[in-house]
């Protein structure tokens, strides 16, 4: 394939990525599905002999590309969420109830369930099975656009909320969006635990150190760094005394990308989780002045970059599928993937939300249909590819080819399954909510 052909195909693909969201918005077909199939078609074309799409040959490249894609998406969802979290308000914490349940109950259950399948069905060593569970447990902020909140509200938001004239993000989309924004960072402690076990020398007394640093310390540092940077940048953008420094008035939306890079880099420098820092920074930046049109401008820049990165990742993923990525997939990998998507995540999600559930008439409360939807739509995607590449670049992984085939198949199966079901399911729930609002 010549360089000219690559430019042509990339241009055509970007055009499709721009048009597809509008074309597929009302049908049971998602843009990621189309892009993966398109990538599979590209993979059938001849490539240069020195181009390898084998994951084992590209650990660093896969890690950095998927990492940046997830970071961009985290900044986007953090800016998009309209339901703020007021740390001083118990009521605000309670409106986030579904998110805390998904993070603190559903995610650990999903890790344990998937790890058990990896050990019992696939015959993996316990450490490798734990890694598989940690890699596949996080839901994805990149490929879940059909079940996430849209662009931020920016017109008289605070006043409208007081008068209850504008409905915030519905609880389903809010729960899935916030979960995807936070659990990408919360999976890291379990990835590190698996790597420590694989390296050897990790004993029972070391559990306390793991909990203290990898679970508590690094999470706290990530959130703190993101919060502080978001506050500082928000003050500068919206309230700077010098007019030239008030970027919100100037209308320069690239502050969002500066915030993304600065928060991630600062958190990683001090040892915190950069993913959590980016999401926390975005949330705090959004809270600086919620109703300002600059919020939508920043979100627009991030959204376009996210679309470009997603296009790149999905095209290459599709190409790799037709060039041996699934070569090591067997019935064990298929069984683990389907069990995760159809049993483990839905069951873990439903249990976390249904037990001692809040009244569905309250903010943060879900009825049975909404609970089932949130439990089912746990989209797997780019984050899983990042975690596996990260682990493979830090430690020798037994059964690595099988892991790549299984994780890639899980991502593709999730793209297809959730892509087909998201539009009709969300349309039905939206229609029901409108009917109830009319009758109410």
What does this structure look like?
The protein is mostly helical. It has a single domain, classed as Na+/H+ antiporter like fold (Up-down Bundle), CATH 1.20.1530.20. The chain is built from 18 helices and no strands. The protein has helices at residues 3-23, 31-43, 59-80, 90-95, 97-120, 126-136, 157-163, 171-186, 188-199, 206-239, 247-250, 255-269, 274-288, 293-325, 331-354, 368-376, 382-394, 400-439. Helix 2 packs parallel to helix 14 (293-325), helix 3 (59-80) crosses helix 17 and helix 6 (126-136) runs antiparallel to helix 17. The chain is globular and about 60 Å long. The model is unreliable at 160-168 (pLDDT under 50).
Number of strands: 0
Total domain count = 1
Q: Write the CATH architecture name.
A: Up-down Bundle
Main sheet? none
**Secondary-structure element sequence?**
HHHHHHHHHHHHHHHHHH
Head-to-tail CA distance between termini: 60 Å
Mean pLDDT: 87
Helix and strand composition category: mainly alpha
Q: Any idea of the CATH topology?
A: Na+/H+ antiporter like fold
Spatial extent as radius of gyration: 21 Å
Percentage beta strand: under 5%
């Amino acid at each position: 394939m010549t360089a000219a052909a690559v430019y042509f195909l990339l241009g055509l693909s970007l055009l499709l990525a721009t048009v597809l969201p509008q074309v597929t918005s009302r049908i049971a077909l998602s843009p990621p599905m189309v892009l993966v199939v398109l990538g599979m078609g590209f993979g059938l074309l001849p490539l240069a002999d020195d181009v390898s799409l084998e994951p084992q040959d590209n650990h660093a490249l896969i890690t950095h590309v998927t990492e940046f894609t997830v970071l961009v998406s985290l900044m986007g969802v953090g800016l998009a969420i309209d339901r703020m979290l007021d740390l001083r308000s118990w009521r605000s914490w309670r409106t986030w109830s579904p998110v805390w349940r998904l993070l603190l109950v559903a995610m650990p259950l999903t890790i344990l369930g998937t790890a058990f399948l990896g050990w019992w069905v696939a015959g993996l060593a316990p450490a490798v099975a734990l890694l598989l569970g940690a890699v596949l447990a996080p839901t994805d902020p990149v490929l879940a656009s059909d079940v996430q909140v849209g662009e931020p509200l920016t017109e008289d938001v605070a006043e409208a909320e007081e008068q209850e004239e504008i409905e915030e993000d519905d609880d389903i989309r809010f729960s899935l969006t916030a979960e995807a924004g936070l659990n990408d960072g919360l999976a890291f402690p379990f990835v590190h635990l698996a790597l420590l076990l694989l390296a050897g020398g990790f004993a029972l007394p070391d559990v306390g150190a793991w909990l203290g640093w990898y679970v508590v310390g690094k999470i706290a540092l990530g959130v703190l760094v993101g919060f502080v940077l978001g506050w500082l940048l928000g003050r500068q953008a919206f309230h700077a005394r010098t007019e030239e420094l008030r970027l919100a008035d100037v209308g320069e939306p690239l502050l969002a990308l500066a915030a993304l890079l600065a928060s991630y880099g600062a958190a990683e420098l001090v040892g915190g989780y950069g993913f959590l820092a980016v999401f926390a920074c975005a949330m705090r930046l959004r809270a600086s002045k919620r109703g300002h049109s600059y919020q939508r401008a920043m979100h627009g820049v991030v959204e376009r970059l996210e679309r470009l990165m997603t296009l790149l990742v999905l095209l290459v993923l599709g190409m790799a599928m037709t060039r041996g990525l699934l070569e090591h997939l067997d019935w064990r990998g298929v069984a683990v993937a389907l069990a995760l998507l159809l049993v483990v995540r839905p069951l873990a999600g439903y249990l976390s939300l249904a037990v001692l559930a809040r009244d569905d008439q309250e903010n943060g409360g879900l009825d049975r249909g909404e609970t089932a939807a949130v439990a089912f739509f746990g989209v797997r995607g780019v984050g899983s590819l990042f975690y596996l590449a990260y682990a493979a670049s830090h430690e020798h992984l037994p059964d690595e080819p099988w892991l790549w085939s299984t994780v890639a198949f899980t991502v593709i199966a999730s793209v297809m399954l959730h892509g087909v079901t998201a539009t009709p399911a969300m349309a039905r729930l939206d229609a029901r909510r409108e009917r109830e609002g009319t009758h109410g």
